[in-house]
Amino acid sequence: MKCPSKCCKPRTLLDYKAMARIHKALGSEARLMLVDCLKDCECSAGELTLAVGLDQSTISKHLSVLLAAGIVDNRKVANTVRYRLLTPCVLEMFACALKVLTPCCPPKKSTKEK
User: Most buried among 27, 29, 81, 89, by the most CB within 10 A?
Assistant: First the structure.
């Protein structure tokens, strides 16, 4: 059965590849922690190291993935690089994931289970 054109407006394969790249960048617990840390403020790699508890080389590698995906941005201040969340809309994915993990309504007990 074909999808009616009025409800389904397919994107191009390139659109899906770009979206997959963003999801892949967010597909790491460490990178999710970094995004969460950057939701309210700008931080250096050293500050993120302390907040997340991973070593600085690991943090730097994860930040480079987030930078390449366009999720975070950086700027140099004196001799420190500061990172910030460039696309805060990714935090909506956090809320969505939490909704999936925490269903809004508990399952109803059947009348036979009494």
Answer: 81
